[in-house]
Amino acid sequence: MSLWTSADAIAATGGTSAVDWTANGVSIDTRTLAPGDMFVALKDVRDGHDFVAQALEKGAACALVSRIPDGIAADAPLLVVPDVLTGLEALGRAARARTKAQVIGITGSVGKTSTKEMLRHMLASQGRVHAAEKSYNNHWGVPLTLARMPADSDYAVIEIGMNHPGEIKPLAQMADLDVAMITIVAAAHLEAFNSVADIAEEKADIFYGLMESGGAAVVNADLDVSDRLLERAPFGCVMYGHSDKAQWRFVEVTETEGGTICRAEHQGSTFLFKVNAPGRHFAMNALGALAVCDRVEADLAECVLALGQWRPPAGRGQRRFIALDRQMPDAGIDLFDDAYNANPASVGAALDVLAASSPPAAAGRRVAILGDMKELGETGAALHAGFAKHRAMEAIDQVHCVGPLMKHLYDALPESKHGLWAETSAELAESPLALVRAGDVVMAKGSLSMKMALIVDAITKLGQSVE
C-alpha cells in the first residue's frame, strides 16, 4: 500500500508535479533514504535542494522542492511548492486527517522518548502503531512523523518538544491529539524561559491539540506545577504518581538490579507491573503510559505484559555488561548508557540509579561520567556545581567531567571523588582505561552536543558487550 500518490500529495499541498509518481516513505536525509521514498529538500545547515539529484539517483520516488534545482530536468518527479517546510506541514495535516488512528502526544522536560517507546511496545499488541524511530519532536520532526503515518494506523505516538516559547501549540494542533501526556516539568531551556513555571505554561500548550478531539490530558501528579497543569487541561485531567491526587497511584516501588517492580492502584483495584530498567523515573513514565493505554481503551493486562518485555533504547538508560575476559565472564564493567541528552532533572535521576546500583565486583566502584547540560542560561554554572551536594554523590566513588560547565561540578567536588576533566568527550574517549576498570559500574550522561556516546563506544570496545 503506497503512502503518497502524486495526486494525494498535490491535493494536500497545492503543489504541482509534471509527472505521476507513488511514494512509499518520506525522507529528509539522502544517507538514510530508501528507494521509493519522497525526499523533502529542507533547508538546515545545508540546502536540501543541493541533494535532490543524489536522492533521485538513489531511487527516490520524487522530491518535495520549492524550485527546480540546477541540473534537474523539468519533467523529473518533483512536487513543487512555495515553501518546503510548509509543504511538509501540509502533508502532515493531510496524513492526520485521513487516518482513524488514536493519536497520543507526549511532552515533558524529561522522558518523552522512553515513554514513547514504552507506548509503542505496549500498543503493538493491540494494533498497528506508528511512531518516529528517533526523537523527532521539533518544528520539522512532528510534521515529518505525521507525513510518514500510514492511513491504516490504529495508534500514533508523537513526541512534541520545544526550545523556545510558542513552539508546542502549533505542533499539538497539527497532530490533533486524542491524548496529551506531560511527563516532567523541570529546569531545562532556561536560556529561553524565566522560570520553571514559564516552562510549565509552554508544556501545557500541548492541550491545544485536544481542542478539536475533546481528548484526555494525562499529567504527572507529583510536580510542583501539577495543579497549574490541571487548571490548563480543557476537558479534565487524568493524573498519575505518588500523590493522593493521582487516579493512577503508586502503592509501592521496589528497585532491583534487574529493574523496577511496582504496585499501583486505579479505581480501587491494585495491579503489579515491572519495568526492565532500574530507576523510579522509568517507573513513573511507565505508570503514565499505562494511564494513556487505558484512555485509548487498550487491553490493560496485555499492556502490562508487554511493558515487562520493554527495555530502554541505546543512550536512554540502556544497561549492558561489558565482558573484559572471555575466560572470566564476571570480570567486566556494568555500563549505564544514558548519553543521549541531559538536564538537571534527568542527571539527578541517573545519579540516583547509579548510587543504588551494586558494582559487579566487591572492589568495584560507582563511576559517573558527566558532560555539560546545555541551554540553562545564567543558572548553568550553579546548577552544575550543585550536583556536588546531590544526595547520590555520597555513594558515588569517582566522577569524570566533560566541558566547561561541568568544570564547575568538578571544582565543587572533594578531591577524593575527582576523576578526569576534559574539554571534550573525544579527549576522554581516547583513554577509556583511565576512566573505568574491571568491576566498576559506570554511568555516562550529557547533552547531545557533548557527544558522550563517544565515551560509551570507547568503553564498550574494551570488551564484548553482553546483554
UniProtKB/TrEMBL annotation:
GO CC annotation: cytoplasm
Major place of residence: cytoplasm
Keyword hit for Cytoplasm: yes
Sequence ranges assigned to domain Mur ligase N-terminal catalytic in this UniProt record: 24-69
Record-level Gene Ontology MF annotations: ATP binding; UDP-N-acetylmuramoyl-tripeptide-D-alanyl-D-alanine ligase activity; UDP-N-acetylmuramoylalanyl-D-glutamyl-2,6-diaminopimelate-D-alanyl-D-alanine ligase activity
Domain annotation Mur ligase C-terminal: ranges: 331-447
Domain Mur ligase central intervals: 106-293
InterPro entries noted in UniProt: Mur-like_cat_sf (IPR036565), Mur_ligase_C (IPR004101), Mur_ligase_C_dom_sf (IPR036615), Mur_ligase_cen (IPR013221), Mur_ligase_N (IPR000713), MurCDEF_CellWall_CoF430Synth (IPR051046), MurE/MurF_N (IPR035911), UDP-N-AcMur_synth (IPR005863)
Keywords for the protein's UniProt record, in alphabetical order: ATP-binding, Cell cycle, Cell division, Cell shape, Cell wall biogenesis/degradation, Cytoplasm, Ligase, Nucleotide-binding, Peptidoglycan synthesis
Compartment list: Cytoplasm
Task of the protein: Involved in cell wall formation. Catalyzes the final step in the synthesis of UDP-N-acetylmuramoyl-pentapeptide, the precursor of murein.
Record protein name field: UDP-N-acetylmuramoyl-tripeptide--D-alanyl-D-alanine ligase
Organism: Litoreibacter ponti
